Amino acid sequence: LAEWTRRFGGAYDFMIVLDADSTMAGETVLRLVDAMERNPGVGLIQTAPTIIKSQTLFARVSQFSVALYGRVAAAGLAWWTGSEGSYWGHNAIVRVKAFAACAGLPILPGKKPFGGHVMSHDVIEAALLRRAGWAVHVTAALDGSCEETPPTLTDFIRREHRWCQGNLQHIGLLRAKGLSSMSRLQLLMGCMAYLASPLWFASLAVGMVIQLRYPVDWGSFFYFLHPQLSAFVLASLLSGVLLIGPKILGAVLVLSRPRERRAFGGTGGVIRGMAAEIGLSAVLAPILMVANTRAVAQILMGRDAGWHAQQRDTDGLAWSDAFRAMKWQMVTGVVFAVALCFRPDLISYFVPIVGPLLLAAPLAV
After folding, report:
1. In sequence order, what are the beta bridge partners of 137?
2. Which of 257, 282, 291, 332 is positioned for an S-S bond with 157, CB 3.0–4.6 A?
3. Are strands 92-95 and 14-17 parallel, antiparallel or unpaired?
4. What pLDDT, in 10s, does the model give residues 113-147?
């Protein structure tokens, strides 16, 4: 992009940025150009792409979830960020003059993984546009913007590792001069998207160690059937609302539109699909927790994730590859399972965590 902007950018008012596996309908392009021409203070408009061409179960679930919930999430993001939105690196229109004048990326000091070229460049470019006074918007109102997704869980984790390194590089840019508060908040949220995993893992491990100091208490086994209104319970309920609320709103939106409802297979299809997606997300959560915790640890130890071509086509995953890729998840599950042998009364709390970890390899296949 930098080379194209320097060599040819002066001949164009706008550029549409696409990944190798993303597309955009002609009507969507025209509407984006019209919006840029009508609003000369806008430097970038980011669309909310849907996922296409999914063939594996993992990719199909991702495609379903983005189609059902993506617009609600993007609309919420557009509302609270306003003209200080984010940029996802593709499927967006950019004002070339603004980009050329103020979105040049720095070379970070020090060695990799924290130094060198900025890997997660898109959020930084949006922040630099905002620093120069250009508006950056996210829109959920346009259809026809599409991309592909990793076909397997292992491919997804590999991409997450690279994104993790790129987002953690932003720690050193949080105090950069001139950035708006919203830009700093988005950089911090990007960091926390990955730092949350080791924090969650640490809370589980520390909690288990503390509980091992006390005797078995079968009175707590069915505590979840008669919970007390404590701060923990309220925080859990709030977390559930934040996680599932957008999914419910997305389903309500689709069900309220007859044409879209039929496209999703009717009311029953929407409800069954949403329930299956929520269940699978809950199963994958501890697997991704361990993967991201390991990625953060490797980055903190100075290991560079590199930048490799993304896998988009696959014929499946061999069992040997699955066990190799998921060995840390399964080892973690075994450690927690052994600890539960000494506190079996805690099984009802840890089964949603330990079960998926022990079955990580079969789930990856």
Report:
1. 45
2. 291
3. antiparallel
4. 888 888 899 999 999 999 999 999 999 999 999 99
Task: Give the alpha-carbon dihedral of 61, 272, 77, 191, to 10 degrees.
Answer: -50
* Residue boundaries of the structural domains of the chain: 1-196+228-314
List residues bridging with 139 in a β-sheet.
Answer: 47
Report the relative pairing of strands 135-139 and 23-24 from DSSP bridges: unpaired
User: How far apart are the C-alpha atoms of 60 and 362, rounded to whole Å?
Assistant: 18
In sequence order, what are the residues at sequence separation of 6 or more whose Cβ sits closer than 8 angstroms to the Cβ of residue 331?
Answer: none
Query: What average pLDDT does the segment 207-223 reach?
Result: 83
What are 1-44's pLDDT values in tens digits?
888 999 999 999 999 999 988 999 999 999 999 999 999 999 99
Compute the distance between CA of residue 357 and CA of residue 286 in angstroms, rounded to an integer.
Answer: 7
pTM score of the predicted model: 0.90
At position 339, the amino acid (one-letter code) is: A
Contact 357, 200 (CB under 8 A): no
**Do residues 246 and 76 touch, judged by C-beta distance below 8 A?**
yes
- Amino acid identity at 93: I
Side chain identity, residue 324: R
User: 1-196+228-314 domain in CATH 3.90.550?
Assistant: yes
Q: Per the structure block, which two tokens stand in for 196?
A: 């949350």
State the Cα angle at 29 between 24 and 32, rounded to 5°: 125
Task: Please give the structure tokens belonging to residue 153.
Answer: 């869980």
Distances (CA, A) of 301 to 120, 191, 205, 218: 19, 17, 21, 42
